[in-house]
Each structure stands twice: as C-alpha cells, then as structure tokens.
Amino acid sequence: MPKRTDIKSILIIGAGPIIIGQACEFDYSGTQAIHALKEDGLRVILVNSNPATIMTDPDLADATYIEPLTLEFLELIIEKERPDAILPTVGGQTGLNLTMDLHKTGVLKKYGVKLIGAQIEAIEKAEDREKFKEEMDRVGIETAEGGFVNTFSEAEGLLDKLNFPVIIRPSFTLGGTGGSVAYNYDEFRDLIKQGLTASPINEVLIEESLLGWKEFELEVIRDKNDNVIIVCSIENVDPMGVHTGDSVTVAPAMTLSDKEFQLMRNWSILCLRTIGVETGGSNVQFAVNPKDGRCIIIEMNPRVSRSSALASKATGFPIAKVATKLALGYTLDEIPNDITGKTLAAFEPAIDYIVTKVPRFNFEKFPSASGHLGVQMQSVGEVMAIGRTFRESLQKAFRSLEVGLDGLEAKRFDAKDADIKRSKNLNLRSLRYATSYRLLKIREVFAKGETIENVHQLTKIDPWFLYQIQQISLFNKKSSLRTLKENGFSDAQIGRIYDKSESEIRSIRKNKSILPVFKIVDTCAAEFVAETPYCYSTYETKNEIEPINGKKIIILGGGPNRIGQGIEFDYCCVQAVFGLRDQGYKTIMINCNPETVSTDFDLVDRLYFEPVTFEDVLNIIEFENPDGVLVQFGGQTPLKIANQLKKAGVKIIGTSPENIDLAEDREKFGAVLDELSISCPKYGTGITLDEVLVVAEDIGYPVLARPSYVLGGRAMEIVYSEKQLINYIARSAEVTAGHPIFIDEFIEDAFEFDVDAISDGEKVHIGAIMQHIEEAGIHSGDSACVLPPYKITSDILDQINVITKKLSIRLQVLGLINIQFAYRNGKVFTLEVNPRASRTVPFVSKATNTPLARIAAQLATGVSLNQFQLEPWDRKQYVAVKEAVLPFDKFPEESIFLSPEMKSTGEVMGISRSLGESFSKALISAGNKIPKKGVVFISVNNSDKLEIISIARDFIELGFTLIATKGTYNSLVNNGLNVRSIYKVGEGRPNIVDQIKNKDVHLVINTPMGAQSRYEEEEIGKSCIKHGVLAVTTLSAASAVIRAIRATGSKKVKCIQSYYS
What we know:
By secondary structure, the protein is an alpha/beta fold. The protein is 35% helix and 19% strand. The radius of gyration is 28 Å and the shape is globular.
C-alpha cells in the first residue's frame, strides 16, 4: 500500500517541559517521528516549548516553533503554516489534550487540518474513562466495578455499591495527577474534592480497589489493514496501588501463564479495534487477581507512551518510527526492520534476555513527601538494565541509579560513621508500604531468614520475584566468582563478600579470564545478524560482536534523569556524537536511560546499554580500546568516575579530570582566583560545629552553608544568624556528618549571571552571557534567565568576558565551560566555575544558533576554534527567556519559596523581539496564568518596601486593585497609593488565604522574610499552587511580570529558523 499522497506538510505537537509523569521519552519519540517524516519528503512543522530537546534543534524540522503549548498559540501557528495534517500521538498527554481542544473549538475544521495516527473518536473513547468503560463492557472485556462522578453528592451515591478502600482517578490528567486511594469516608470526602479539582473536566472515576493485584502492560501496533503485532509484554514487580511509572518493571512478563497471556493479547487487539485506533502504537494495561485469575483491562493509551520508550529500548523495535510510517499509510509488511535489515516490521520481536526498569526518585528535595508510593506518579527518572536472568538485570539496574548502590544491596555503614544511625533496625511491617527502595529491604529480611510466604503476605509481590531476590541474598563466600558475576554482582559487592577491594577482585577476575561478553539486542533472539549493534554485557562464553574498526571515541552518558541533571545533558551527549562524526570518528555511547535520544538504536555506531559505573565502563573500554573517552557532556555521572578511569590508563579527551577537579576544590581554586586577581565571595570550611561557627563569624552573616559533595544545591541554605546556623547543622546532620561544610559569604541583593563558553586551550568563544531574573541566592537551575542581559553596563559585561577568558585558559579548557557571577555595587564576584557541559547549553545554543556542544566535542579532539566561523553572541535582535518548571503540584505541602537547593524538573523558553513578550511566553509555557486584570496581593519584607512602591504604582496604572498586609499597606498608603488592607493568617478572618481560596486574588507578590518563610507565607504558597494563582517571591520577578502583562495583548508566533535569518 503506497503512502498517502494527499499530505505534504505535517504538524507535530511536542510534549513541552519535563515534568513528573512526562519526561524525555517524548523527545525520543518526537525525534524519531521527525526523521521518519523527513525520509518520506514531507515538510515538518514542530511546536514545543522545551529548548532542552534534540527535537527542537533548528536543523531537524523545517519550521520549529518554540512557543507555548496552548490553544491560542497553536491556532496562530496553524493559521500561519497551514499544515495538511497533525500527528498527535508523539507528544504525550499534552499532544493529545491539545489536539482535542483544537477539534472542540473548531480550529481543525476551520483550517481543514486532518489527523493522522489517531482520530478524534478514538482519542475520545480511549481518554474519556467513562466512554472507554462503556466500549469495553459492550464487547465483553472486563473492567473494574465503579462509575464516574462530577460532584461530591454523585460520589457519595456510588458508595452504596462499593466497599472501602476505593481508587479515585481524575479524568484527563497525566502521571496519575490527583489519583489516590481512600480507606475511609473522611479521606474519601477530601480526596474526591482534590480529584475533581485536578481533572480539567471536573470528573473522577471511582473504582473497586485492585490493591494487591498484579499489573501488566502490552505494547501493541496496528496498521490500516488490521495487521496487529504485540511488540512487548511488561510486568510490574510492585502490585496494583503503585503507579506503573514508579514501579520496578520487567520485560518480557515473567509470571503470566500462556492462557493468561493469550487472553491479554486477544483483548488488546479487540480493544484497539473497538476504540478505533486505525494505525500506530498503543499501550494497554491489565490487572490480574492472583487469588482467582480474574483479569480486567485498566486503560489504554492511543499514543506513544513512557512504556513505549521502554519497550522500544527493551526489544530494539523503533515503535515511534514505525507508528509514524503507519500513520502515513504504510503497512507493517512494507516497513523494513532497521535492526536486522532483513526482516519486516510485521515480525513480532523475540528476545532472549531480561530487561528491568527501576525508577529514580528525588524525595530528599521535598521534605514534605512521605516517600510512600501510590497511584500518583512521583519518580523523576528511570534506568534500564539488560541481563540473561532477572537477577542479573535487577542488580545491574540498581547499580545504575547513582544513589550510592552497587547492586541490590543496601548501603553499608562503618561503625565509626555518624551516618550509622540512619541504618535503623528493619521493621518487617514497614514492607507493607511501597517505597523507592523496598526491594533492598526485602533482600535484607531474606538475608535474616524471613520466608517468602511472610514477605508475600505483607507486600503482595508475586512469589516468583521474591524467590529471585531471596536467591540473591543467599550468595556467600562459598559462591564461585563466576557464579556471582553471572548473577549480576559487581566487583565492589564481591569484594565485600570475599573481604577484598574492588580492584583486587577485578585483578583476580582478569587472571581467571572471567570477563564479560557482549550480546546484541536484535529483535529476533539472534536469528538474524544485526546491522545496528546495540549491546549489553553478561557473563557467558561467546561474544556476539567484535571491537569496532577505525578511529573511535566513547561518550559517557548522563544516566537517569533527576533534579539537577536532566535532559540537558542528554542533549549535550547527542550533540557530541554529531560533532565527532563531523571529524570522521566512529562513536560509541554508554548509557542506561531508556527515555533518551542518546540511547536510540541508530544514533551511534555502537550503543552499550550498561550502567555508567567505573567497572562497567572500564570493561567496555578494555574491549573496544577507543582513541579517547569523553566525560564532560553527561553531567556529574561520568565525572564521578573520570579520575578512576584516568588512573586505570584510560585516555580522557577534552578538559582533563585534574582541571575539572581543580575548579571543584575550594582551596586550590581559591588560590587560582588569587593568582589571577579575580574576586570571589569570602569562604571557609569546617567539620565540627565550633569550626563552622568560627568561620561564619569571620565571614559575617548572611552566609551560604552547604555540604562539600552534593549536586543540585542539595541541603544548601542561606543562613542569617548563629542560631539559624546551629539549627541548619542539626537538621543537615545526616547529609553532612563526617564531611566538611562549606561556608560562603552570601552576596545579598546582587544580580546573578551565567556564562557558557567554549575554548580550544588557546582561544575562547563566549557562547552567551545570561542574566537571572531572580536575585542571587536562588539555584541557577530554578531561576528564570534572560539572554541578552537586561540590566547591566557594558563595562561589567567586559569584566565578565575578561574573567571567563582568563579562567578558561588557566584551566586549560578543551571544550565547554560554565561560570556563574554575582554583581553588586560595581563589583563582580565569581561564584562557581564548571569546566564541563551545563544545563544552559541547549538554551544558549537555540537562542544563538550556535551548536556549542557539537563544536566543543570537536575541540576536545584537538581541533582549533579558528576552524569555525563563529559570530559574536550579542548581535541578535531578539530576546530569549528560560523559565524553570517546578513540581509543586505533585508535592502540594512543599514550600514554594525558591532557595539555593534546586527543585525544578524541566524548563521552557520564550523568544520574541522584547523582554516582556518573551517572559510572557515563558510564564505561559511553564503553566502559569498571567492575569490581565483583577486583584494583586502584596506582602514584602522590610528591605523590599522602598522598591515595591514603583512596582505597585505600575499595577494600579494597568488597572489592577491592590490588597496588602499591614506593614506593606502602610508603606504603600503613605506614598499615596490606593490599597486595601487584609489580614495575615492568624490575625483574623477573612484573611489572605480565604481570599485566594475564594478566587478573589489573581496575582501574589510575597517576598520571604529573610531567613525562613513563616507559617502564613507557607499557607499562602500552598493555596496559590492549589488554585492556580501566579505567585512571585522576588521583586525582580514582579517587575518582569509587569512587562509580561503589558506584552500579553498582541500574540505573535515565529519559527526559530526565521529569527536566525
């Protein structure tokens, strides 16, 4: 069947910023879709607000719009571009919801735009839980007992048919947002209200409890001729009650009988036909009652999903690419299998290994979170590992997480370590609750002699998985080295068993020729020779690959996404591949993150899907013998092992590990700054409480306190007094025990700047200088930043340029460098230097049309900057704004006040001819509502009371009504402004929180009171999150919001390619 000839241009709607529940798997699927469409000669138009993606690179789509993902902006793009069709299935829930909005408002009909891949009726039936349930019941596919409600009284009526506990699922949300379990009437009342609020259509599904049932997923693909294949089956290790995104999962399914699998297979195919999914990939989820074998369908997603990315990486079958080709009218028997080059996409993948996915959490960033897992997704990333057995792949996955584990084994504590108190006696009953590391606890109780039956009763995890974990716990000194390696034990784990060091075990292993062999992920269980080697290690006897011939470089990836290290570093790794290819190198990627473009099957010459640990990486290096290894692009993950690799004789190219360490070592780097006469904040280090107090007293308060070895600003705090410092050390004891605490002078009321640059060791090119909208003291990853800077003199910019060049040359940077500066009272302070990729590189690259990471990879190989015709960054006639996206909707009890500790999960970008319009676009893209009129609440600390006057006056001129708490009210009224007074929380009623809850406040300006936000400020912040009110916590942001409001009148869209021309 030939492809459709009625379509010449296609619009792809991206998924937007990385948030909990929707991560970089949609960059992977969107990038695959664009490549597939371009192969067929179609014009591709892309809209996405996330600059940290490969898909938004200007040389990928024909027209790339980095614009807000809202109905208003989409219509402007459609009006301008007039696409023939929209592909709505590769942009996650965001893409589907927006497509439905375009249909309901008549935009699709108005501009004659078709849909390919999924039609409106199919999306409605799959996404509307009520219609889905009706359709499944109609064809005899069993669903859970329950019903849909739109009001609390309707919900109460349903309780006559159901017993507690009940599951509450809001309609049309992603990542299970608002989902919950009610065990009693009081919880039911509160959770129904929350669920109705979370649903954009004020609807929730109330169902019988399936807690303790087994959960399965099937990835299914259908073409227009009704050919259907099952790409992969996936089983959740955790039972129902834990969101599938938060569960450890295994492919293929391990505990299904053939009869159960065939039933699910038949129901999946019937489901797709009934819903009307014409073509493409769908994810179908099932639950099975282990007591009686009753099987029900939970839901289906008529689009590429998080599980599709996992299934693609698990099998080697490129689901997003095939789904896109099918949407164009091809059939499965016309699409070649790119992995084998001999079979067709109509062949169902067969795998002869086990894949395990383990989620990555960041609960330490959110003290209000309980750490208990439930039906609302909370993980921020995931890892995947491949092994010949479940035990091997599970151990490899746990050591891939980068949380200090080297397998399925809890951390060991030295008796002298103050951290020993964290290693509490294990309470068996705690296993009832699913947590991020429950499997570690299970291994521990098995080691102490607990039975499978008891653990199964507590956890409801299938006995087969428990048996496997029990087996891991039983290995000991009598186990042979080879047996331990076959079961996934790392050299470090084996060292503890044998009372030897990791290096001693490695040496013994090599002497005995106990070496890993490399197997291929080929979709066909080795029946055909693979053309795109995509490999994993195991301990068997036969290698399925030979080392790559020719000059080659290994790139170490960034591992799992987490707060502080996300998709930005995957972008840099992919760009490094492109740059090395430009210089004629073959490229080898090592990474363990299934959501990413860097682990796509056809990106590099060879992909090793392996943990990015010293042992695993060195195994591959010794096998491949590359010309060099790049460690500067994957964030902290590769840098942690760079020194070990260098000591092992590995050739690290680019900036040396010694110079990267020099920038991280406070004392040594302080000496470099003194040598170059560069100013920095005063600093000191202490280990004991007395030492730290003396250092802080010498520097003078306020100070910035932080542990010496953390990422993403973990446990950093601005401290205003000795009392607060003592309190900080007490609270942070678990993080800081036995380790130095850094104390820095805090430069208050300073402007902060970020610089990205590249160097070849002799010359330096400034990529861009960005100015933060928030003042110093807020983590750079959480602060909005503007390019070019909006409030600085040219001589200060010159100083920043000079310091950047001096430091780049002194540190012998070969590639990327990022430097952070503060400016106050005519003086520039150097805050931090990172001679590696930074999270701002993608934003700067898009804003300036200069692929910094691509060029940096080439500089690392010895190429000179002179070979690139690079234009100055500051000659652009437009403004770009990067804004952070924060996950407070998932953690509604969390303080919204930003601090030195990073909490954002993703970012968005606004670009236009003015700062106001760009900031407006960035705010809208981050999910904020910008009010055009209404009530502004103002409450500021004493030091802000002078500057707030002009800001308040601007709001009045724009037609807003002002209300303020007593101190701020007096300050504004005394300056002739018309303001109403309102109670703080605890002063009387109605207070400000009452007003927010009554939807009588449209914007909040609330600057925290110096040291710690007080109770009422916390309550205001939580109410703003709950009711969707924009809250700003610095005066710089308040000024920027005024510009944004002024710019909201006329909305214009422009593809980034046209900004460059």
